[in-house]
Write a structure and sequence with these properties.
Distance between the termini: 46 Å
Radius of gyration: 25 Å
CATH architecture: Orthogonal Bundle
Helix content: over 70%
Number of helices: 11
Number of strands: 0
Structural class: mainly alpha
Low-confidence stretches: 5-20
Shape: elongated
CATH superfamily: MetI-like
CATH topology: MetI-like fold
Length: about 300
Amino acid sequence: MSQTLFKSSKHALAKSSLVERRRRWVGMRRLLRSLRASPVGICGSLIVAGVLLVALLGPWLTPHDPTTANFRAREQPPAGLEGGSWEYPLGTDQLGRDILSRIIVGTRVSVVIGIASVLISSVLGVMIGLLAGFLGGWIDLGLMRIVDATLAIPYIVLVVAVSGVVGPGLLTLIFILALINWQAYSRVVRSEVLSVRERDYVTAAYAIGQKKLPIMLRHILPNVTASIIVLAALQVALTILAESSLSFLGLGVQPPTITWGLIAADGRELVGSAWWIATMPGIAITLTVLGITFLGDWLRDYLDPQLQP
């Protein structure tokens, strides 16, 4: 009898594992089919994959030392223009440093700032939105008033205040950008939870005696994850743009750390004579933000259940 039960349990486990593998394979095929049908998704995926690859392999891809000055090659235009050379494909800055190498190295810093700040802000915002939407009452009222109060603070004032107290730097900028962006997650998650908590499966979970915390984590949070993923993808693009803007103004990352915003700031006084110093990192920022935005648009369509076949 025991051997029969053991064999039947083993067979059921193997069958369950096979079903799970088939489900994952079907899901992957549907993902790839949706991506192939979306030119915007393909374009965004290629750009994002390229940026991530450069961020990971940056130190091994640089043709020159990004911090070494070469005054004999200062303000050399990009290759293909008069006076340019393929030794410096994107030209050099006022100190003779290779702009291509500096953009490659700056990619890692900009991507790390974008992803790290979005991770922090999404965790904080999702927790607050989940509690506010699920518990309701005075908790919802209090948390949403905190959100409204923080939205009323101009982010430039917040940047100057925090930088003045803590000091400018990479970690400070990540913390500031996280404080700026978490409110969007709270509002989106709260609105989703207000709808999801009225569904039948939540009522059934209450009926069988489940506690509030397991219901939030097992039944409600997974059903608002799609909105969180789409919002996070778009927030990464906005965060990279905000970091570049703040670094350009001197309120973000400080030298000798290299970011796209600082590279552009080096050339803001030389736009008339050496336009490529500020233009090349600007092109890198534009392509990255466009790629992430395209990928976020495709994810929004892919994760929308109303658009699924």
